[in-house]
Amino acid sequence: MTNSGLSRRSFLQIAGATGLGASLTGTIPSDLQRLLGGIHDDGRPADEVVPTVCEICFWKCGIRVHKRDGQAIKIEGNPEHPLSRGRLCPRGTGALGTLYDPDRLRVPLIREGERGQERFREASWEEALDRVAEGFKRVAEKYGPESIAMLYHGAGGSFFKTLLKGMGSANIAAPSYSQCRGPREVGFELTFGEGIGSPEPLDIANSKLLVLIGSHLGENMHNTQVQDFAEGLSKGMRLIVVDPRFSTAAGKAAHWLPIKPGTDIALLLGWINIIIQEEWYDHAFVARHTLGLEQLAAAVAQYTPEAVFVETGITPEQIRTTAREIALAAPHALIHPGRHVTWYGNDAQRSRAIAILNALLGNWGRRGGFYLTSKSELKGLATLPDFPEHAEPADRKDGEHLFAGSTLASGLREATLTGEPYPIKAWLVYGSNLPYVLPDPRKTYQAIQKLDFMVAIDILPAEICGWADVVLPECTYLERYDDLIVPWHREPFIALRQPVVEPLADSKPGWWMAKELAKRLGLERYFPWEEPREMIVTRLRSSGYSEEQIEGLFTKGTIKTEADPLYMLPDEDYEWGTPSGKIELYSQQLADYGFDPVPVYRRPAQPGEGEFRLLFGRAPVHTFGRTTNNARLLQQFPENEVWVNRRVAADMELRSGDRVMIRNQDGAETGPIKVKATERIRHDCVYMVHGFGHETKKLRRAHRNGGNDALLITKYEVDPLMGGTGMNVNFVTLEKVEV
Amino acid sequence: MTPKSDRRFGMAVDMVACVGCSACVIACRDENDVPEGHSRRWVMEVVRGRFPELTAEVWSDCCQHCDNPPCVTSCPTGASHVHKATGTTQVHKEMCTGCKACVASCPYGARYIHPKGYIDKCTLCVHRLERGDNTACEAVCPTSAIVVGDLDDPNSEISRVIRTRRFKQQKLDAGTKPRFFLLQ
């Protein structure tokens, strides 16, 4: 590798010369240099500009980071990168507040007090890594390697996944499946035979009509999708927003349908019914590609607009009007599949209803609908040996959650608690603050108490770290290499994460930790490279990329490859991945396993007198708990508020700015939190932005700042199809407090 | 009256596209080293009506770089001035005594007192305009809602959107002749 001429140093010099450095030279008049006192505008150019990939959220936009005097000074979108196209969301832009967060973990820590007391002593890497290796060895010897589980979030987890698999455990799970988008994947897999994936293949920029169901685009700032959303709106796309809350997107909608929470399936089946009854569906597409229209028609006939109105609060006239508009815009109409969809425990069936409606519109592989994705070729390392045989994951018992397509994080917690189907005795937690991610934090803490050993790897001292036996401080994504990023997308590409600045204090990259642990566990063979750069270049060369392309990856941040066609031809045959090879409007496999073959609406429990359903979501400036200690982002959104309908608030003598404690049906509470009395929400629910109100004092800005909805999610409904945890099932009361 | 400038740079914000995410505010902060607790731009969200009959407007706002800027005419020292090359309103910070006359005269609340004692505000990233770049806010905007350009150039993008789109302007009755347009 070192002989290849691909040293990082030379790449950075190239980046500096071809980037901002060249464009600035001698162009700023001296009076302007005096006039302005900014970072770039004092006449001193950045020393260099490094392209890399953001991970302030999971979207992974390409960024260009400006550096001066060894410090990162500004982050902008990388114009070369298909996910950012030179533009960037507020979180990615303000990520220097995380990079330079004074509360970051700086050195390895070994627990001294009880779990949860956050009492640690500082340790050397040598000692901390020895301790982790010993912890794993002991558990593996006593219970078998499958008793070691990994719970993670983020691209950096890949090296630790290799480690776990090398040890012989398949108990690797990300809450982003069972606590977030899993039901959506299953709903679409059952219908179309393929899931949605990330980034979502939605051709919103070319849609004539978009329906958002509880999805608050613009408050969730998934960069490319928000760009497409704005482009669609600018081109006259009609928008229908179904949300109990008047979201930012609702403010742009032709129709805002303030639905009663939990009744979305009724509305979807009502729309399907009208579209079938009125024969507005895409006859050619349905005939060619789908199975079960007649059974579907019979099953949804009961969902008349009048019947749906009673459940949803959406008037029959609104239901008819919107159904007609949706159908008229087809196939360039799209019912957005959502992303965070773990709401009520019937979420895979709701996602299936969304999938069915999209199928009737004939929008798969069509302009303005779902485009067809492609992926750049990338080979693995030829020298990587096979992993040992391993036990089936412990996340579910035989016959449970049959349609789960990924290991369930909540299932691994359950196995840890119960010892069934077999004991889980060690956790490796990477970048996921489990108490606020998995529903019912009490259960997470109880599970941890059952462990013989736990290691947390993180950049910040999140709550989960306080429960670990060893805490390993990782450097941020701006300070490390990760594995190559190769998503399915409309423009296939390979993107590189590479370090911009030196790691803070004694923090280390994940790849280095994983390799060091592998040495101690006798698993070096799974890391047949010295430096990640070497591994990256080897993979690219073996996949046939030219030296020029490889150099371009380091200097520009991406390798782009040719895309397959985005759209299907009208008479094109398509191999659907379902058992029948067709889009299944009626699902025989669901019927065979005793589930509803067509989604059925069942009325959810409603809050009692004085109670509200608790709903939560995102603010554009934050990525949940990951950024609520970031000073730069807190300037724009300093604390969360609880949204309460204005008239309801008036009846309770609450005004905006008052502070309340929020208590749920199980006596769990959070607060004080500020009230936002607003017309923008229904009377029967309250809403707050997730990620605030941290309990740990180690996150000094986030500590007790605002309210923490995670503490109130003590109840959840498990999706029988796939094990997702519906979390919008908690009812709360508000009590004013004087502060 | 203020002196004639070579060009007349202004800004349009597309309220159809803007989602009020604040990326522009943060990009501005890093580009221009805006001190903590202050801001050269801000996001406005105005919701009108009663549940469920609501309408909303959201936009990113800043100095309107007026044709008739009261901040310039009210400045006793000449620190507040019109930048000749771009027509943007600027502050010579070494000439500014921090008297706040301009702050009081600005109907848009666009100015703040820098901790170092002078008045600070949006420069329309004139240092970037000078080198042919767009502003930091325009560059970052994920919704492409911000358009900056020369209103005297009929071929500029801003001239095109002003010709073709419905727009409104803020506080026209103040007589400031703002060069800031909200596209509807």
Summarize the entry for a quick read.
The complex is a heterodimer of chains A (739) and B (184). Chain A is α/β, with parallel strands linked by helices and 739 residues long. Chain A has 24 helices and 26 strands.
What does this structure look like?
The complex is a heterodimer of chains A (739) and B (184). Chain A is of the alpha/beta class. Among the domains of chain A are: 193-373, Dimethylsulfoxide Reductase, domain 2 (3-Layer(aba) Sandwich), CATH 3.40.228.10; 612-737, Barwin-like endoglucanases, CATH 2.40.40.20. In chain A, strands 5-4-15-14-13-6-7 form a 7-stranded mixed sheet, covered by helices on one side. Chain A is globular and about 70 Å long. The N and C termini of chain A lie far apart (62 Å). The model of chain A is unreliable at 1-41 (pLDDT under 50). With 184 residues, chain B is an alpha+beta fold. Chain B has a single domain (9-183), classed as Alpha-Beta Plaits (2-Layer Sandwich). Chain B has 6 helices and 10 strands. Chain B has helices at residues 23-32, 70-73, 101-105, 126-130, 136-140, 157-164; strands at 9-14, 41-50, 53-62, 80-82, 89-91, 112-113, 119-120, 146-150, 167-168, 180-183. A 4-stranded mixed sheet of chain B has the order 8-1-10-9. In chain B, strands 2-3 form a two-stranded antiparallel ribbon. In chain B, strand 4 and strand 5 form a beta hairpin. The longest helix of chain B has 10 residues, at 23-32. The radius of gyration of chain B is 16 Å and the shape is globular. Chain B starts with 8 loop residues before the first strand and ends with a strand. The mean pLDDT of chain B is 96. At the A-B interface, helix 3, strand 3, helix 9 and helix 23 of A face helix 1, strand 2, strand 3 and helix 4 of B.
